[in-house]
């Protein structure tokens, strides 16, 4: 049952760009309604649908609830990143910065550190700290450069001096 539900959720997201906004919301909400209101994954999907539709004020408490209920290793980092993005879009970049810095402190090199760093850079820029934002972004991409990665890391650190 869970695998089928997960597949149906994935199918909605795979076609979301071809659907109108209300169809995305109706589809996700119908799937969420199949689960108990204490199902962290369902709450996360509800938050994600609202976030996708730029309904951040509705998404924020749902992300917080999903995290509180306990998400799996796949959805937890997504929820933290998406909550931080939502906070930034709601005009609270300082909260987004704190959330992502805390996440990165605990998960400095997992698969989600790159995306978390990208959203941290955005939040820092929104908070007015452009030099730190540039440093975070450059540090995050340094490992993907075919050459000069050490130099870019060094120059990124120099931006903070």
Task: Kindly describe this structure.
With 161 residues, the protein is mainly alpha-helical. 75% of the residues lie in helices and 0% in strands. The protein contains 9 helices and no strands. The longest helix has 15 residues, at 75-89. It is elongated, with a radius of gyration of 17 Å. The termini are far apart. The model has no long low-confidence stretch (mean pLDDT 96).
Key attributes of the depicted protein:
mainly alpha, 161 residues
Brief account:
This protein has 161 residues and is mostly helical. The chain has helices at 2-15, 21-33, 40-52, 56-69, 75-89, 93-106, 113-126, 130-142, 149-158. The protein has nine helices and no strands.
Q: Give the uncertain stretches in residue-range form.
A: none
Give the SSE string.
HHHHHHHHH
Task: Give a quick account of the main beta sheet: strands, pairing sense, barrel closure.
Answer: none
User: What's the helix count?
Assistant: 9
Count of extended strands: 0
**How much strand content do the residues show?**
under 5%
């Amino acid at each position: 049952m869970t695998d089928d539900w997960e597949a149906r959720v994935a199918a909605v997201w795979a076609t979301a760009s071809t659907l109108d906004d209300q169809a995305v919301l109706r589809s996700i909400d119908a799937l969420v309604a199949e689960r108990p209101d204490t199902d962290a994954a369902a709450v996360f999907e509800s938050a994600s649908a609202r976030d996708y539709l730029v309904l951040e004020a509705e998404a924020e408490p749902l992300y917080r609830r999903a995290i509180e209920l306990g998400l799996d290793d796949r959805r937890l980092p997504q929820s933290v990143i998406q909550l931080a993005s939502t906070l930034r879009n709601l005009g609270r970049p300082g909260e987004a910065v704190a959330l992502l810095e805390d996440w990165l402190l605990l998960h400095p090199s997992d698969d989600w550190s790159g995306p978390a760093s990208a959203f941290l850079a955005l939040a820092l820029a929104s908070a007015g700290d452009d030099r730190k934002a540039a440093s975070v972004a450059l540090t995050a991409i340094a490992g993907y450069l075919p050459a000069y990665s050490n130099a870019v890391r060094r120059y990124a650190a120099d931006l903070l001096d």
